[in-house]
Amino acid sequence: MISREKGLGGYNLIFCVLAAFLPLGSNIGVLFSWGVFPVLAVLITLYYTRSMRLEGVFVFLVIVILLSINYFITIQYIDYTIRVNKNICLALIGCFYFIVCFYSESFTLRNLNKAITVALVVNFIFFMLQFLMYYIGNFYLDYGQMTGGEGGRNFSNELFRASGIFSEPAEYCSAMICLVSIKYFIEKSLSRFSLLILITVMLSFSVIGLIQAIAFLFIANFRKIYKRPLNLILFCLICFTAFLIFKDYLFERYDLFILGQDGSNNTKIDTISFFIDNKSYLYGGAGLMGYDLYSMPLFFQGLYDLTFWGANVTIFGLILGLVINFAFFLFLLLNFNAKKIGIILICLLKINVMIYASYWFFIFSLIILARDKTINSSGH
Known about the structure:
Blueprint: H1 2-8, H2 11-21, H3 27-49, H4 54-74, H5 81-102, H6 109-135, H7 143-146, E1 155-156, E2 159-160, H8 169-187, H9 192-203, H10 207-220, H11 222-227, H12 229-258, H13 263-277, H14 279-284, H15 307-316, H16 318-335, H17 338-347, H18 357-371, H19 373-376
Antiparallel strand pairs: 1-2
Helix pairs in contact: 1-3, 2-3, 2-5, 2-6, 2-18, 3-5, 4-5, 5-18, 6-8, 8-9, 8-10, 8-17, 8-18, 10-12, 10-17, 15-16
């Protein structure tokens, strides 16, 4: 057993994390992110360890029971049961292979950190190639369309917003912030490479990405900023410079929102209004119904875009959703300090839906980190 674990080398976690953070929007992408990478991750894990922590089995059973209860409630009144069936399968697949890899006896934070670094490097390369090809070579490198998919959503009027292998900038930003945050918790410091990743988040010209990156830097460096007024001035200058660079785009998005033409934010309001007007959805939730461009009303697009806390309510209903929110927030209070909770809350602005494997990566990473005394004994 010992020799096998030494031979593992963290490759199972590399495939596991790549499966969650290389969501190429095409059939080839689906094949790798939901087929090849997860299967390799599970097979390598089982071959080298052959054992799991009982805690992982318990967690998986609890999640299955919770989703089953939600399923049997929501199918009584929703009209999209086929989508719910599909999305529950995706949620359970993602949950299963992350539990197998994260709760194996061979799991180490060192290997997880290595896997995160690999995922960041790969995404950095894809992002910079796309960014430089457009702004220097005047060529739109669309990875999804090149591999037979529908293509990315990279243009806001005439502004090109790079997103790497992700479909849109906001998805790229939330994924990178998530990876950088867990890496920061493990290493207890912000590396130069992580700073470089945060710069690409800003270069995506995503409003939510800009907010997340600046908030992350502020919280991670709060002590330095607080102790030295010069650092505060420098940080304010950085924020002001960022505002000047993006002010035209920010004002444009604000005007669209006021006019009701901002598809990203106005749909959230419409989604909330729908739940208030439909009591079955309000108290029972919409389950893992998701959104389909061709068969659903536009406002259902906001189901999965109301932060982690709002998504729990839209999925499980008001009562169960609030119970889950309370339990999770209590978990954060009991296991993390204020700085870490602040960073986690930044991530939860967009890491919010369990049909995406990145959701399980983040949740299980927090559980593992909470259990590790060396991580949480630090005042960092």
